[in-house]
Amino acid sequence: MTLNVETTPRRASIEWRMSAACRYAEPELFFPVSAAGRSAAETERAKSVCARCPVRRECLQFALATRQAYGVWGGMSQKERRTIHLRTALFRHITAYYGRSAAARGRVRRRMI
Dihedrals φ, ψ of 103, to 5°? Predict the structure, then answer.
């Protein structure tokens, strides 16, 4: 089996970045110093750039997969991405304990939210 260079994950990660709406924006906008005050306004401005980005989903998937600890990625702050990681970990833990059937019936989801 041969891999096409165009379909390798590394190549794909470069390609989505080339189409990102933030490509020519100021990087500081996406990495605010704190979550309050002026930085909160910068976070909202960064999210507005992400809102019109054609590769927002790919960006968020990259940030979640590589556990980006700082900045706005795919329209989500570090706190929002951390919440996703925690919910995913909790879901995995519960389904491991109760089994997939409980998750399939929706019992786990109602408790998590």
Answer: -70, -40
